[in-house]
Design brief:
Elements: H1 3-14, H2 19-31, H3 33-49, H4 60-81, H5 83-96, H6 104-141, H7 147-271, E1 277-281, E2 292-296
Antiparallel strand pairs: 1-2
């Protein structure tokens, strides 16, 4: 609530503001429900201040005016007596609200103000009772019939007693509410501390998980590299095996060629020998037209 408006509310309830200030307060009240509730509390205090004057011996005209005021105050009190129920609902609402820990300070301030108001109200009720006692003495000395007035005053006393009891009960409720709010505020502080600790732990766990994820990723990369190397080595082994097979074939071919070369060399040595001559071979009886050529050593019996 605006501090300036908060300071003006008691004077607004007393009707002692200038037109400019009154207009400012009216505009603020139309927009803020908490200010209207505070004004209702101030109105209760102001209604009790009406009975704060010291009792004196009144004239008959003053007495008549006083009786009219009493009737008006009775009607006003009937409205005020119903007010604590609305205040009770107001405090029950905030007690069940999730915003209660955040409003603990404000509630404590309201409790202090309400306690002060209760003290002032009790003081004013005591003064009112003294005033009513003085009025009883004055009316007893008058020659007129004051029985209706005495009955009205008795009713007023009972209402004042009920109001005083209601104020006492309200003060006890406010004290209990203040105690409960303090306990909830402490619990809220502990919960915030636990939440902060859990957040720190969660951050640490996330860091560890992040590091573990990086390590796992690196291991996967290494495994992929090893697998690729194994596949490359396997391919190389296959190439080497194929080369070995080809080399074996080449060696076999080379051995065959060496044998052929060796045989050809022997033939060349034999052919180039000075005793070797080419000889014509005639056909046989079966094939008289056949003929052939033989290179051999005619002197060699073999």
């Amino acid at each position: 609530m605006d501090e300036n408006i908060k300071d003006l509310l008691p004077f607004y309830a007393l009707g002692g503001l200038s037109e400019a200030d009154k207009e400012q307060v009216d505009q603020y009240l139309s927009l803020h429900s908490e200010a209207r509730q505070q004004l209702e509390t101030e109105a209760i205090v102001v209604s009790a201040l009406a009975y704060s004057v010291r009792p004196t011996l009144p004239a008959l005209r003053v007495k008549n005016d006083l009786m009219k005021r009493v009737e008006a105050d009775v009607a006003e009190r009937n409205r005020i007596v119903a007010q604590p129920a609305m205040l009770t609902r107001f405090f029950d609402y905030f007690r069940s609200s999730s915003m209660m820990p955040a409003l603990a300070g404000l509630s404590l301030l309201v409790a202090i103000l309400a306690g002060t108001w209760t003290f002032l109200l009790n003081t004013e009720v005591s003064r009112l009772q003294e005033q009513l006692a003085a009025v009883d003495k004055i009316t007893a000395a008058l020659p007129v019939d004051v029985t209706p007035i005495q009955l009205e005053l008795e009713t007023l006393r009972r209402e004042n007693d009920a109001l005083q009891q209601e104020a006492s009960d309200q003060q006890e409720k406010l004290l209990a509410l203040s105690t409960e709010l303090l306990a909830l505020q402490e619990e809220n502080g502990l919960l915030k501390s636990d939440l902060s600790t859990q957040n720190d732990t969660l951050v640490a766990i996330r860091d560890e998980l992040s590091k573990s994820s990086i390590e796992v990723t690196n291991l996967v990369d290494i495994e992929d590299q090893l697998l690729a190397q194994e596949e490359s080595i396997s391919a190389q082994d296959q190439v080497i095996l194929a080369l070995q097979q080809e080399l074996t074939q080449l060696r076999q071919t080379n051995a065959t060629l060496l044998k052929e070369i060796s045989a050809q060399r022997e033939i060349m040595v034999y052919v180039t020998s000075p005793n070797v001559q080419p000889m014509l071979i005639a056909g046989t009886t079966a094939l008289p037209t056949a003929k052939g050529q033989l290179i051999a050593n005619p002197n060699d019996a073999t």
